[in-house]
Queue: 2 jobs
Job 1
Amino acid sequence: MQQLRPSVYSIRAIDWDRRLFDELIPLPEGTTYNAYLIAGSEKIALLDTVDPTKTDTLLDELTAREIDRIDYVVSHHAEQDHSGSIPNVLSRYPSARVVTNAKCKSMLTDLLNIDEKRFTTITDGQTLPLGGKTLQFFDIPWVHWPETMCTYLQEDRILFPCDFFGSHLATSGLFADDEPLAYESAKRYYAEIMMPFRPVIKKNLEKLGKLQIDMIAPSHGPVYPRPQAIIDAYKDWVSDDVKNEVVLAYVSMHESTKRMVEHFARALIHRNITVRQFNLVSTDLGRLAIALVDAATIILGSPTVLTGAHPQVAYAAFVANALRPKTKFASIIGSFGWGGKMVEQLTGLLGNMKVELIDPVIAKGHPKDEDFHALDRLADQILAKHKEIGIAG
Ligand code: FEO
């Protein structure tokens, strides 16, 4: 347990070894599950708990600090990495009540079978006095589930936003002192978890912008004692602005697609367009997601296999489509031996992305001069599109 402010403590369970979240999201830097304890002169509140795999860490901390009473367990989010230890906390502290909004209450009863009688339901903007410390609750839906809410500690001006502004980053340091690493981890987290909800995140940022926030204490990763940088980063990520960048994600089986990708990347670079190239056989999907936060264009490169796209490219297209980046243009390059529906399959997977599709370049067998010329023309088209929206010189 570490002190953030007088009577305000962080209780972190550091998960150095976890490498996958939701059996989907890579965690190259591990993660932390952060709970917070706020001790007023009259009442004590615990904000969130920790992942069920780390329940003992939380309970041992409470024991070590001789916390013999908890009055409120505030649950900001029903996902189990924050709520999963609530049943154990309620068993340890029989008079504790779970404080949350109606939607989260419903989800917690479904997911964790918590007795309805243990809940105190609050509404947007409501306050809860602890004695010298006042909690104020705000609904911030879809960061990243429908029930998500946050707590603002009025006297200390600390925002506890749960997943919002979080990062999967295991560090011994409590605060975001290594700013490049913190920024990269926060951007990865945004890309993988928050990006599909970009429009509603804008609204949540506007809503929280009315508060004076001196510190942001999320439920994953480090605390921000100077929160303006992470707030500004989020404003940039959720804006409609894209950068003069192309994400070039590909797989090649027998070098045809690879030769096209390499030629095409050079053509883009010669036109002063930034290229983010990913071989999908080996790339960390999180890095691809990060690149999609800013890029104006995505190009998928695939051979034709089993009459369609390479499964790794189809998977990347499926994930990119689910993440709903603000990417504006897309195309496909690749190769085939004797036929197939690779292009139709991949474009069909991008239905959620509001992109303008540019004509693909597909080579029969190894690419020849006319294919390389077609790639040059595709690079010209992309440059022209980027100029049209004012991001290329
Ligand atoms: Fe960190 Fe959505 O749970």
Note: The first helix runs from residue 55 to 64.
Job 2
Amino acid sequence: MNQDYFIDEKLIHKLLEEKINPKKKEIDKILTKALLLKGLELKEIAALINISDKTPLEKLFKTALKIKKLIYGNRLVLFAPLYTSNYCSNNCLYCGFRRDNKDMKRKCLTLEEIKEEVRIILEQGHKRILMLMGEHVSECSFDYFLKTIEAAYSVEDSKGSSIRRINVEIAPLTKEEFQKLNKVKIGTYTVFQETYHQETYEKMHPSGKKYDYFWRLYVMDRALENGLNDVGIGALFGLYDYRFEVLALIQHAKHLDDKYSIGPHTISIPRIECAQNAPCAMNIPNPVSDKDFKKLVAVLRCAVPYTGMILSTREPSEMRKQVFNLGVSQISAGSKTNPGGYKESLINPEDEEQFLLNDTRSTGEIIKSVIQQGFVPSFCTGCYRLKRVGKDFMDLAKPGLIKLHCLPNALTTLKEYLVDYADKETKQEGEDIIKKELINISDEKRREKTVEYLNRIENGERDLYF
Ligand code: SAM
Ligand code: SF4
């Protein structure tokens, strides 16, 4: 075991037991502290995650939304995932791409096919993508993946728009690979630990490179030590006790923050979905109820206020709407989880998909519904492009200053979307929300500059940001 093993399983179990029935008074005190936006102690998080009564739960939800608005304002950042290959030599018991799923039609996209996928994603209005693939050294090597990133950045759609930020979610890399990845200019590098509980982890990953719990656990250390600026962590909820995973995610975040002064840029919160020939997706070991899922989102928002929280289309639209109000700050839209899925309307997509999606609405429908819910859909990539990354980003996010950039950039990127891609109804509703939200830009000069940018976009300029 590594010397500075930062997941303390014994401590987590002890705290979860000690805080099993938190008193209302204690909860109130913790929630008041959470509003200071400085995060919480592990024992306080253990108390929140053990809440079961309705009244304290509602207080928790309200606090989470307040924190989200204080840090990020009223925006929700959108992205689309792009799967480049479903070959995989691992055997994760919950995933459709697993090696032993012999019914999966395997595919590794050519660079031309990738460009075509990107063109379709761009025509939906997206500006940021998340590129993913299975782990297979010969069928989809790391060098191939680097080429796919360059190919994706090179595409222009009919409006002359290109992808402005590519985030990456691929198997843990070596030091040398991170140095190469750095050169192709990516945004965030993400890996989910799946479960932080070592014994469960080893059961879920019976063979292949992924069996090594510690190789995966220390991937973000390797990333930050080798030039990456922004990293994303996550747990796959349903493998082990969700309360344990929440506390472990916090220990991971604290470890990165203490050691590198860069906490995780994002935390992802996937719940296991149905997947072909994947025993633990058909029979989930520790299912997380909707009530507990909402609670864990709100607890994470209180515990690490500065960190973006990502929700995918694994969740059904109704649940997505509910957790936007609990602290989620980034969402995928119009997703496909099979390589080539954007181009093909397949007869049997499940033969190539990693898992089934529950929110199958188009990007346009999701944007309309986000606006109707009162949030500003944002395609912002400003921080990454102005190098507000790593510690610089954290220095703005922690005291709640990042929203000075987030809201204006959300409004200018939404304006681009409305002019270039939206239907008539969305256009009207979008213009209304822009007008309404301009008032929330507290700095007068910034507000005036935003209005100027909006007019310039109306008149044909693009890519104006703060
Ligand atoms: N293959 C790489 C890896 O495992 O690190 C890249 C990421 S994989 C394409 C994306 C993530 O999908 C996995 O980390 C896992 O958490 C998630 N996933 C796999 N099967 C799933 C399922 N049945 N339901 C929900 N999420 C799943
Ligand atoms: Fe492969 Fe990743 Fe799926 Fe595991 S989760 S089988 S590593 S694609």
Note: Residues 88, 90, 92, 95, 97-98, 134-135, 210 surround iron/sulfur cluster (ligand 2) (CB under 6 Å).
